[in-house]
Amino acid sequence: MSRTPDLSFQMQNKMVAYKHIVTELNAARLKGTSYPIVHSLIDASASASASASDVRGMPSFIASI
Fold first, then answer.
1. Are 38 and 62 in contact (CB under 8 A)?
2. What CA–CA distance (Å, rounded) separates 35 from 52?
3. What is the pLDDT of residue 48?
4. What is the 3-state secondary structure (H, E, C) of the chain?
5. What b-and-e string marks burial along 34-54, b requiring 16 or more CB atoms within 10 Å of the CB?
6. Distance of CA 32 to the CA centre of its chain
7. pLDDT tens digits for 22-60?
């Protein structure tokens, strides 16, 4: 059995979670309030069943943006 469908589903779940975070970030920006973007992305990644290595790598990913 191929793992590709599982990985695609996991990635799709992450993208949906990230879309929600970006929507919240934009709403906060329009209100002129701060938003904890890094923590929110880490939490979304963890809740989307990301592996521990993905979560540990998130701060480096954010720093590279």
1. yes
2. 24
3. 72
4. CCCHHHHHHHHHHHHHHHHHHHHHHHHHHHHCCCCCHHHHHHHHHHHCCCCHHHHHHHHHHHHCC
5. ebeeeebbbebbeebebeeeb
6. 22
7. 999 999 999 999 999 999 988 888 887 554 445 556 666
pLDDT at position 2 over 60: no
Q: Give me Rg for the CA atoms of the chain.
A: 13
pTM for this model (two decimals): 0.61
Interatomic CA distance for residues 10 and 32, integer angstroms = 33
CA nearest 62: which of 42, 48, 47, 34? 42
pLDDT at 1 over 80: no
- CA–CA separation, 19 and 25 (whole Å): 10
